[in-house]
Amino acid sequence: METVGQRIGRCIRSAMPKACRTCFWLLKIILPVSLLVRLLQYSGILAQVSVFLEPAFSFIGLPGETAIIFLTSVFTPLYAPMTLIASMPLTVREVTLIALMCLVSHNLLVECAVQSKTGSSFTGMFVLRVGMSFVIAFAVHRIMPYEGYDTIVGSAADTGVCTSLTDVFVLWIKSSLSITLLFFVIVSALMILHYILEEFRLLKSLSTAMAPVMILFGLPRNCSFLWLVGNIVGLSYGSAIMMEQLEANKISHRDGNLLNYHLAISHSQLEDTLIFAAIGAPFLWVMLTRMVFALLVVWIKRLLTRLPRYHYADLPIKK
């Protein structure tokens, strides 16, 4: 009979190959994208594109220069737009609005690729997340009071713009090394945790405990573990577990797609919310807003899938 230590060791040996494959797949996407964004920033193309977005951002209560923050967020992890936010003299209210937009739409080429592997359409998730960024910002702009949230946070400090292509590549190499190490550690730890939970039959208890929350959010009970993974560590780090669950047929593509609608709006609630709270965004406004809109998106999705679908053969013929 195996001891507890031996069972844990077997879990580690089983988890590591899958964790390595997932890390390699993620890095094949992340590293080229991060280099491309740095080159676009260096060339000034991102700054030029942001000019065209100024009217839209003014409509949702944000100054035009925040457009470049959102554009940066779409293509990069949250630390890049967070740095830009911290460098601008924005009010708490403005930080909250742009933070919510970035939290919904960040690192989309990577995260939408992850979601396309777990039951959803890449294009559908991309459009949903960008669109909901503006919907959420507009809604919060209409209901969030100015009084009490008009304090200026951040600064106008220089963000350290690269002055040559050499600087661009040096910074990219440094960040790539840290990203690679970080991804390997986190993805491996999550995959090992998943195997241990499976080995000791803890997932069933966890799923049962989370069932009422899943019902509230309009999600199937069997999504509870992946919901926790997505909301605690996010889509990129949790992708290994999500794909493993689908491959093992522990969750259907239909359920995975529905879960992705929720996670598109609300994921990585722990780390990401704390990051923006640290630079001035109110914690509860950021966390609760995303959870409420994630709930609404899933229930609207479920409602729409129940509506009758008409085919050309069903339509009356015009005479």
UniProtKB/TrEMBL annotation:
<feature type="transmembrane region" description="Helical">
    <location>
        <begin position="56"/>
        <end position="80"/>
    </location>
</feature>
<protein>
    <submittedName>
        <fullName>Transporter gate domain protein</fullName>
    </submittedName>
</protein>
<feature type="transmembrane region" description="Helical">
    <location>
        <begin position="122"/>
        <end position="140"/>
    </location>
</feature>
<feature type="transmembrane region" description="Helical">
    <location>
        <begin position="23"/>
        <end position="44"/>
    </location>
</feature>
<feature type="transmembrane region" description="Helical">
    <location>
        <begin position="274"/>
        <end position="300"/>
    </location>
</feature>
<keyword id="KW-0472">Membrane</keyword>
<keyword id="KW-1133">Transmembrane helix</keyword>
<feature type="domain" description="Nucleoside transporter/FeoB GTPase Gate">
    <location>
        <begin position="24"/>
        <end position="103"/>
    </location>
</feature>
<dbReference type="InterPro" id="IPR011642">
    <property type="entry name" value="Gate_dom"/>
</dbReference>
<dbReference type="Pfam" id="PF07670">
    <property type="entry name" value="Gate"/>
</dbReference>
<keyword id="KW-0812">Transmembrane</keyword>
<feature type="transmembrane region" description="Helical">
    <location>
        <begin position="179"/>
        <end position="197"/>
    </location>
</feature>
